[in-house]
Amino acid sequence: MACLLPLSSVLHRPHHKQLDLLAAQRSLQGRRELLEQACLSHTRKRRVLSPEDLKHLIVDDKHSLIYCYVPKVACTNWKRVLMVLTSDGRYTDPLAIPANEAHVAGNLRTLSEFSVPEINQRLRSYLKFIFVRDPFERLVSAYRNKFTRRYNTAFHKRYGTKIIRRHRLNPEPEALEKGNNVSFQEFVQYLVDPRTQREEPLNEHWERVHTLCHPCLIHYDVVGK
Protein backbone atom coordinates (compact mmCIF):
# COMPACT_ATOMS: atom_id res chain seq x y z
CA MET A 1 0.00 0.00 0.00
CA ALA A 2 1.31 3.46 -0.84
CA CYS A 3 2.42 5.65 2.06
CA LEU A 4 1.43 9.25 2.72
CA LEU A 5 4.53 11.28 3.57
CA PRO A 6 4.39 14.38 5.79
CA LEU A 7 4.50 17.52 3.67
CA SER A 8 7.60 18.71 5.54
CA SER A 9 9.56 15.68 4.39
CA VAL A 10 8.65 16.44 0.79
CA LEU A 11 9.16 20.20 0.87
CA HIS A 12 12.45 20.25 2.77
CA ARG A 13 14.55 17.91 0.69
CA PRO A 14 18.33 18.32 0.17
CA HIS A 15 19.89 19.83 -2.97
CA HIS A 16 19.43 16.52 -4.79
CA LYS A 17 15.75 17.44 -5.14
CA GLN A 18 16.16 18.73 -8.69
CA LEU A 19 17.87 15.50 -9.77
CA ASP A 20 15.10 13.51 -8.10
CA LEU A 21 12.48 15.48 -10.02
CA LEU A 22 14.27 14.92 -13.32
CA ALA A 23 14.47 11.19 -12.64
CA ALA A 24 10.78 11.13 -11.74
CA GLN A 25 9.89 12.99 -14.93
CA ARG A 26 11.86 10.50 -17.02
CA SER A 27 10.18 7.60 -15.24
CA LEU A 28 6.71 9.06 -15.80
CA GLN A 29 7.47 9.76 -19.45
CA GLY A 30 8.68 6.18 -19.87
CA ARG A 31 5.45 4.83 -18.39
CA ARG A 32 3.32 7.01 -20.66
CA GLU A 33 5.29 5.86 -23.72
CA LEU A 34 4.98 2.21 -22.66
CA LEU A 35 1.24 2.68 -22.21
CA GLU A 36 0.87 4.29 -25.64
CA GLN A 37 2.81 1.45 -27.28
CA ALA A 38 0.65 -1.16 -25.56
CA CYS A 39 -2.52 0.63 -26.64
CA LEU A 40 -1.33 0.78 -30.25
CA SER A 41 -0.52 -2.93 -30.19
CA HIS A 42 -3.64 -4.24 -28.47
CA THR A 43 -6.47 -1.80 -29.18
CA ARG A 44 -8.22 -2.79 -32.38
CA LYS A 45 -10.89 -0.12 -32.45
CA ARG A 46 -11.71 2.96 -30.44
CA ARG A 47 -15.11 3.57 -28.94
CA VAL A 48 -16.87 6.53 -27.42
CA LEU A 49 -17.04 6.47 -23.64
CA SER A 50 -20.38 7.01 -21.95
CA PRO A 51 -20.89 8.58 -18.50
CA GLU A 52 -21.50 5.05 -17.21
CA ASP A 53 -17.87 4.21 -18.07
CA LEU A 54 -16.56 7.02 -15.85
CA LYS A 55 -17.70 5.97 -12.37
CA HIS A 56 -14.13 5.36 -11.19
CA LEU A 57 -12.85 8.80 -12.19
CA ILE A 58 -12.97 11.10 -9.16
CA VAL A 59 -13.10 14.85 -9.85
CA ASP A 60 -11.55 17.64 -7.80
CA ASP A 61 -12.82 20.86 -9.39
CA LYS A 62 -11.03 23.01 -6.83
CA HIS A 63 -7.59 21.84 -7.98
CA SER A 64 -8.48 20.70 -11.53
CA LEU A 65 -7.66 17.05 -10.87
CA ILE A 66 -9.11 13.76 -12.09
CA TYR A 67 -8.05 10.55 -10.35
CA CYS A 68 -9.09 7.10 -11.53
CA TYR A 69 -9.14 4.81 -8.54
CA VAL A 70 -8.23 1.15 -8.84
CA PRO A 71 -9.18 -1.02 -5.83
CA LYS A 72 -6.18 -2.69 -4.18
CA VAL A 73 -3.84 0.03 -5.50
CA ALA A 74 -3.79 2.39 -2.48
CA CYS A 75 -7.13 3.86 -3.49
CA THR A 76 -8.29 4.25 0.12
CA ASN A 77 -5.41 6.62 0.88
CA TRP A 78 -5.87 8.56 -2.34
CA LYS A 79 -9.58 8.97 -1.63
CA ARG A 80 -8.65 10.27 1.82
CA VAL A 81 -6.28 12.81 0.27
CA LEU A 82 -8.95 13.98 -2.16
CA MET A 83 -11.49 14.27 0.65
CA VAL A 84 -9.10 16.67 2.39
CA LEU A 85 -8.49 18.63 -0.81
CA THR A 86 -12.18 19.02 -1.63
CA SER A 87 -13.72 19.34 1.84
CA ASP A 88 -13.32 23.11 2.52
CA GLY A 89 -11.91 22.37 5.98
CA ARG A 90 -14.16 19.54 7.12
CA TYR A 91 -11.26 17.10 6.80
CA THR A 92 -7.68 18.15 7.55
CA ASP A 93 -5.74 14.93 8.15
CA PRO A 94 -6.13 12.14 5.57
CA LEU A 95 -4.91 9.47 7.99
CA ALA A 96 -7.62 10.43 10.49
CA ILE A 97 -10.38 9.52 8.02
CA PRO A 98 -11.71 5.98 8.67
CA ALA A 99 -11.25 3.62 5.74
CA ASN A 100 -14.96 2.87 5.46
CA GLU A 101 -15.77 6.60 5.32
CA ALA A 102 -13.37 7.06 2.42
CA HIS A 103 -15.53 4.70 0.35
CA VAL A 104 -18.92 6.22 1.16
CA ALA A 105 -20.76 7.12 -2.05
CA GLY A 106 -21.29 10.86 -2.27
CA ASN A 107 -18.18 11.95 -0.37
CA LEU A 108 -16.41 12.50 -3.69
CA ARG A 109 -17.83 13.41 -7.09
CA THR A 110 -17.16 11.21 -10.09
CA LEU A 111 -16.96 12.23 -13.73
CA SER A 112 -20.08 10.19 -14.47
CA GLU A 113 -22.18 12.76 -12.56
CA PHE A 114 -21.53 15.55 -15.08
CA SER A 115 -23.11 16.34 -18.43
CA VAL A 116 -21.30 15.32 -21.61
CA PRO A 117 -20.03 18.89 -22.32
CA GLU A 118 -18.83 19.18 -18.70
CA ILE A 119 -17.10 15.80 -18.95
CA ASN A 120 -15.29 16.77 -22.14
CA GLN A 121 -14.21 20.13 -20.71
CA ARG A 122 -12.68 18.46 -17.64
CA LEU A 123 -10.97 15.73 -19.64
CA ARG A 124 -9.37 18.39 -21.84
CA SER A 125 -8.17 20.73 -19.12
CA TYR A 126 -7.66 18.83 -15.84
CA LEU A 127 -4.58 16.89 -14.78
CA LYS A 128 -5.50 13.21 -14.92
CA PHE A 129 -3.66 10.59 -12.88
CA ILE A 130 -3.83 6.90 -12.13
CA PHE A 131 -1.85 4.47 -9.98
CA VAL A 132 -1.10 0.93 -11.09
CA ARG A 133 0.28 -2.24 -9.53
CA ASP A 134 1.61 -5.57 -10.70
CA PRO A 135 -1.64 -7.37 -11.65
CA PHE A 136 -0.66 -10.59 -9.91
CA GLU A 137 0.17 -8.76 -6.68
CA ARG A 138 -3.18 -7.02 -6.94
CA LEU A 139 -4.99 -10.36 -7.29
CA VAL A 140 -3.22 -11.78 -4.24
CA SER A 141 -4.12 -8.64 -2.28
CA ALA A 142 -7.77 -8.89 -3.35
CA TYR A 143 -7.89 -12.57 -2.39
CA ARG A 144 -6.35 -11.98 1.04
CA ASN A 145 -8.61 -9.03 1.80
CA LYS A 146 -11.89 -10.48 0.58
CA PHE A 147 -11.58 -14.22 1.20
CA THR A 148 -9.26 -14.74 4.19
CA ARG A 149 -10.76 -12.17 6.59
CA ARG A 150 -13.57 -13.44 8.79
CA TYR A 151 -15.44 -10.14 8.76
CA ASN A 152 -15.97 -10.19 4.98
CA THR A 153 -19.04 -12.40 5.23
CA ALA A 154 -20.84 -10.51 2.46
CA PHE A 155 -18.07 -11.39 -0.01
CA HIS A 156 -18.00 -14.97 1.24
CA LYS A 157 -21.73 -15.33 0.64
CA ARG A 158 -21.79 -13.39 -2.62
CA TYR A 159 -18.73 -14.90 -4.32
CA GLY A 160 -17.28 -17.63 -2.10
CA THR A 161 -20.31 -19.91 -2.28
CA LYS A 162 -20.41 -19.60 -6.06
CA ILE A 163 -16.67 -20.31 -6.40
CA ILE A 164 -16.84 -23.38 -4.16
CA ARG A 165 -19.93 -24.74 -5.89
CA ARG A 166 -18.29 -24.45 -9.30
CA HIS A 167 -14.65 -25.28 -8.65
CA ARG A 168 -14.48 -27.68 -5.69
CA LEU A 169 -15.04 -31.40 -5.91
CA ASN A 170 -17.39 -32.76 -3.24
CA PRO A 171 -17.64 -29.57 -1.14
CA GLU A 172 -18.88 -29.84 2.42
CA PRO A 173 -22.36 -28.43 3.16
CA GLU A 174 -20.92 -25.76 5.47
CA ALA A 175 -18.57 -24.50 2.75
CA LEU A 176 -21.46 -24.30 0.29
CA GLU A 177 -23.50 -22.36 2.83
CA LYS A 178 -20.87 -19.91 4.10
CA GLY A 179 -18.29 -19.72 1.30
CA ASN A 180 -15.64 -18.72 3.83
CA ASN A 181 -12.70 -20.99 2.96
CA VAL A 182 -12.05 -20.36 -0.74
CA SER A 183 -8.49 -21.30 -1.75
CA PHE A 184 -6.39 -19.03 -3.96
CA GLN A 185 -6.37 -21.71 -6.66
CA GLU A 186 -10.17 -21.80 -6.65
CA PHE A 187 -10.28 -18.00 -6.84
CA VAL A 188 -8.00 -17.98 -9.90
CA GLN A 189 -10.02 -20.76 -11.54
CA TYR A 190 -13.12 -18.62 -11.06
CA LEU A 191 -11.44 -15.60 -12.69
CA VAL A 192 -10.26 -17.45 -15.80
CA ASP A 193 -13.49 -19.41 -16.24
CA PRO A 194 -15.25 -17.98 -19.37
CA ARG A 195 -18.61 -18.39 -17.63
CA THR A 196 -17.69 -15.82 -14.98
CA GLN A 197 -17.78 -12.75 -17.22
CA ARG A 198 -20.67 -14.08 -19.27
CA GLU A 199 -22.83 -14.12 -16.15
CA GLU A 200 -21.98 -10.68 -14.76
CA PRO A 201 -19.26 -8.00 -14.77
CA LEU A 202 -16.21 -8.71 -12.64
CA ASN A 203 -16.13 -7.17 -9.19
CA GLU A 204 -14.12 -3.95 -9.11
CA HIS A 205 -11.56 -5.45 -6.72
CA TRP A 206 -10.32 -7.80 -9.43
CA GLU A 207 -11.61 -6.13 -12.58
CA ARG A 208 -8.85 -5.19 -15.02
CA VAL A 209 -7.49 -1.66 -14.92
CA HIS A 210 -8.25 -0.97 -18.57
CA THR A 211 -11.93 -1.71 -17.94
CA LEU A 212 -12.10 0.58 -14.89
CA CYS A 213 -10.01 3.50 -16.15
CA HIS A 214 -9.86 3.20 -19.98
CA PRO A 215 -6.18 4.23 -20.33
CA CYS A 216 -6.26 3.73 -24.11
CA LEU A 217 -9.15 6.19 -24.44
CA ILE A 218 -8.23 8.72 -21.75
CA HIS A 219 -4.81 10.38 -21.81
CA TYR A 220 -3.43 10.18 -18.27
CA ASP A 221 -0.83 12.81 -17.47
CA VAL A 222 0.60 10.79 -14.59
CA VAL A 223 0.86 7.01 -14.29
CA GLY A 224 2.12 6.28 -10.78
CA LYS A 225 3.29 3.10 -9.06
From TrEMBL:
<keyword id="KW-0325">Glycoprotein</keyword>
<dbReference type="GO" id="GO:0008146">
    <property type="term" value="F:sulfotransferase activity"/>
</dbReference>
<protein>
    <recommendedName>
        <fullName>Carbohydrate sulfotransferase</fullName>
        <ecNumber>2.8.2.-</ecNumber>
    </recommendedName>
</protein>
<dbReference type="Pfam" id="PF03567">
    <property type="entry name" value="Sulfotransfer_2"/>
</dbReference>
<dbReference type="GO" id="GO:0016051">
    <property type="term" value="P:carbohydrate biosynthetic process"/>
</dbReference>
<keyword id="KW-0808">Transferase</keyword>
<dbReference type="InterPro" id="IPR018011">
    <property type="entry name" value="Carb_sulfotrans_8-10"/>
</dbReference>
<dbReference type="GO" id="GO:0030166">
    <property type="term" value="P:proteoglycan biosynthetic process"/>
</dbReference>
<keyword id="KW-0472">Membrane</keyword>
<keyword id="KW-0735">Signal-anchor</keyword>
<dbReference type="InterPro" id="IPR005331">
    <property type="entry name" value="Sulfotransferase"/>
</dbReference>
<keyword id="KW-0812">Transmembrane</keyword>
<dbReference type="GO" id="GO:0000139">
    <property type="term" value="C:Golgi membrane"/>
</dbReference>
<keyword id="KW-0119">Carbohydrate metabolism</keyword>
<keyword id="KW-1133">Transmembrane helix</keyword>
<keyword id="KW-0333">Golgi apparatus</keyword>
<comment type="similarity">
    <text>Belongs to the sulfotransferase 2 family.</text>
</comment>
